[in-house]
Amino acid sequence: MNIKELLDECDRAYANNDYSRLDWACSSILEEDKTNETALTYRLYIFCDWRQYHLVFRLADKIQRIYPENPHPYNAMAIVHMDKKEFEKALGCCEEGLKIRDHQGLRKNKIEALISLNRIGEALKFYNNSPIPDYDFTEALINCAKYSLITFDEMSKSEVVEYLLERCSYLKRRGEYRELIEACNAVLEIDRDNEEALVMKIYSFGDDDEVFECADYAISIYPENPMFYFIKAENIQGDLDEAIALYEKGFSLSKNPESHWFYRDQLVDDLHERAEQLEKEGKYDDAVKSYDKILYYKKDDFKALDRLEELVSKYNINYKPTGHCNESLQMRTNARKRAEKVEDQLKNISIGEYDDDYVKGCSVFKDYTSIDEYIRDIIIVLMESYPGRSEDHARFLVKCDMGYIKSAYENEEPADYCAIGVGYCCG
Prior knowledge:
Distance between the termini: 28 Å
Helix content: over 70%
Number of helices: 24
Strand content: under 5%
Largest sheet: none
Number of strands: 0
CATH topology of the largest domain: Serine Threonine Protein Phosphatase 5, Tetratricopeptide repeat
Radius of gyration: 27 Å
């Protein structure tokens, strides 16, 4: 990609909140143009999103020296200060930035800094004098956790609930559970039995008793919602059978069991633990039933399949393979064939000689004649990106994630960008 194409990629990645892709695009631009203003500016917001606050201040200082008319350093620093609850400092950054140029982000942060400082009248006056498209004062109050001040002048109750739920999701992603409970309570003040708010509120409790009390209440209202059973099961300590029963109840109610892969894995872990206990007690028939049940929920759990076969053979257990067990057997056969094929493919890929310029060239998608050439570049990048990583280790990482590599090749992702995912997922 040339710089113009990379800048377009930055815009798309930022619009989609894909900060990993945005970071790659910015890095690629800055390799060619070390002081590109757009790339440097986008990096400010990458560091904000990743909470690398020291890098925000360092980069803001650099941009201010090179591009003194750019207001974004002040906006990024305001975001950091807001995150750190340093509202006076955030307000100061907004004031300085707005002296340079009017900017919606600075106006929004100024309003929210004033609200957070309980200067509500000033915030409302500034808001009325500087309206921001698609943003109103109720949203500002919610963003600042001033839930008791919410009114329904500009937004209807349903709109407020919708925005509050967006806020709840944001807080959940950031792991801010104390405020998440407050935000959920704000939803429940308006919509007493809101299903989504109840799920997130239960999820955020740290105390098991509170989890169970809230989960039982939610189940009494929404007995068909699998999430309440899953969350309760996840927090049970010491009662394996009850946890398994709750997980299974949840899956029996789910319209899309595959979407609950996290809780499926939790259930599978519990079933493995129960199967191992049954083996220790000499209850091999029951252990086989547990392993069979694992295959019902996770057909590619070949550890369970192997153990099931060993027990049936060793103790002459009368077990007729179920449909899901037969599917697992076929999947294992296919997996072994794929592994052998990948092994043969990797054997034919020779690394040979390369230099630093060659490695730098992996930052763009080359005119490859085959996927083997692409895989070679990924192996090289993996070796060079981590000090001391051997070629054998790099090849192992590639072998673990061939599906992802094939997809990246078809989407023409640069080898070094693909290598980040391979090294992260497998290494």
